[in-house]
Amino acid sequence: MSIREGWKGRFLEDFEVGDVYRHPLGRTITAADNAWFTLLTMNTNELHFNDHYSRRTEFNQQLVNSTLTLAIVVGLSVTDVSRNAVANLGWDNVKMPLPVFVGDTVYAESIVLATRASESRPYAGIVTVATQGLNQDGGVVITFERSMMVYRRGAPQLEGTFPEAEKPIERFGSE
Fold it and tell me: Given Cys at both, which of 46, 73, 95, 139 links 133, Cβ 3.0 to 4.6 Å?
């Protein structure tokens, strides 16, 4: 029996300027997602949680909280872009060209803009990407640039993160 590692994400050495990652998952935003996030973050704009109020606006329905859209699109990109991030360093040029509504499904894709070794941390480097979030119709709902510090392959901080089982895994149940 051989142990096969699962996807561990990209390391600094895996990023090349110009590479585009179409992140594999989409996420449909529900009314509960929008209400909970809005109330959790103390956002008191009724456009995000009051149907009666929202129907009186030009949108005629609730808008998804824009910071929820940002959070979901960043989250969608993690598996490809920042699974091995040491830290986020910043988000720049955040734009929201189209509104997002409850029931919309959001997708994300990123392009690598820059990479470089860290001057202060030999086990890591800096990666900058541009990411855009798309709705189910392909409309761009958010764009931003994001910089993060990412581990190099073999960084000592990543060693031994999966615990050794007391006994090896085997078939469960009867044959």
Answer: 73
Q: Is residue 108 within 8 Å of residue 131, measured between CB atoms? A: yes
pLDDT at 112: 98
Q: What domains lie within the chain, and their CATH numbers?
A: 12-154 (3.10.129.10)
DSSP code per residue over 13-56? GG--TT-EEE-S--EEPPHHHHHHHHHHTT---GGGT-HHHHTT
| Closest listed residue to residue 146, CA positions, set 64, 76, 66 | 76
Measured CA to CA, the distance from residue 48 to residue 102 in angstroms comes to: 9
Integer Cα distance of 47 and 45 in angstroms = 5
Residue 42, amino acid:
M
What amino acid is encoded at 54 in this protein? S
Task: Quote the pTM value.
Answer: 0.89
The confidence band for 174, taking pLDDT boundaries of 50, 70 and 90, is low
- Region at 138 (left for phi over 0; alpha for psi -120 to 50; beta for the rest): left
| 14 residue type, one letter | D
Q: Are 73 and 126 contacting, i.e. CB atoms less than 8 angstroms apart? A: no
